[in-house]
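tool=predict chain=A
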Amino acid sequence: MGPSAIHSAEDARRLARRRLPWMVFDYIDGAAGAEVGAARNRAALAAMTLRPRVLRDVSERSLSTDLFGKQARRPFGIAPMGMCNLSTPGADLMLARLAARNLVPLGVSTVASTPMEQLIEAAEGNAWFQLYFSGDGAGTFKLVERAQAAGYETLVLTVDVPEVGRRPRELRHGFKMPFRIGPRQFVDFALHPRWSLATLFRGKPQMANFQMDGYDFDRTESRARATWDTLSRLRDTWGGKLVVKGVLDPEDARAVKAAGVDAVQVSSHGARQLDSAPSAFEALSAIRAAVGPEYPVFYDSGLRSGEDVAKALKQGADFVFFGRVMQFAMAAAGEAGLQQLWEVLSDEFSIAMAQIGVTTISELKA
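tool=predict ok
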C-alpha cells in the first residue's frame, strides 16, 4: 500500500506493524514497564475537549508561529529519535528534508544514524541537536563542540534518562544498540524480507555521531552523574539557545528557568522511561503556571493528531514535537508516506482551528 492509505497516525502505525520486523516495531512503539504510562498520556489527551464556536469567518487561517524569533510554518516539529534509519533506510534525511520544506526544527538525536553535519545541511539549518550527558561528561562536551562547529544554534539537553528505562517489549527481542544480529533477529528479519533486503542493501544502521576520536558510546553507560552544576557548565559553554527536555515537575521547571535556560520541554520521553510517571499532558498546565506566561514551553509525548496539537497549545505549550508516528509513516510508505502524514496532521490541525473559531496560533492560545 502507498501513502494514499495513510489517513491518520493510526493508519501509519498499522501499516508499519505489517512491514517492520517485530523487534524494530516494538523498539519504536514500546514504552516502559507495563506501558500504563503510555496509556495514561493518551487518556489525558483524549479526555480534553475543544470548544466549537460558530459563525466566525475562519476562511483564511495561518498555521505559522514564532519560534525563537523565526517563523515556523507549523506549530509542530520533529522530536529527536534515536536510530531512525531502522524504520527505513535514509529516514533521518527524509525527516531533514521535511524540516527544510516546513521551516520547523528537526531534533537530531545524540544516537542518530546519520552524522549531525549531514543532517543540518539537509535540513537547511532547521535542526536542533539533542544531547545526552553520559559517563563523566568528557565525550558529551566533545559533542557540544562538534555541534557548535557544525552550525547548530539550538541545543536540547535531555534530562529524563539518568538510566535507560526498562522496556520489556524490546528486551524480549534482545534489542541492542549498537545494532546486533543474532539467530533470533535473523529469523525475524527473514520473515520481513522487504525491510531486510532494503536495510542490508544500504548497510546496518550505525550510531553515526560516535564515529569520532575519543568517544566510545555505550548505551547502557550511566547518565546519572548529571547535576544542576552540569547544566550551569553547559549554559556557560553553549552560546546559542538551550532547551532542557524531559521535565514533569513544576519546581524543576522553575529551576531550569532560573538557570538561564531558554526553554523547557515538558516530556515523559513518550512514556519510555518511568511507567509510573504522571501524564506529561497533565503536567503541562502546571508547568506553564510555574514559569509564567512569557517563558517558552515546548511539549512532546503521546501526540497522535492535529487535534492533539491544538489541545497542547491550549494547555500552555508554545510549540510541540511529534515522534514515533513519523517513523511509522516512513516505515509504511517511505518519504511519500512521511509527507502524507505531515499533510494529514496539518489538515487535522487546520480543521480543528476552523471548528473552534480561530484563525491564528495566538488566537488559539488566548
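The mean pLDDT is 93. The longest helix spans residues 324-355.
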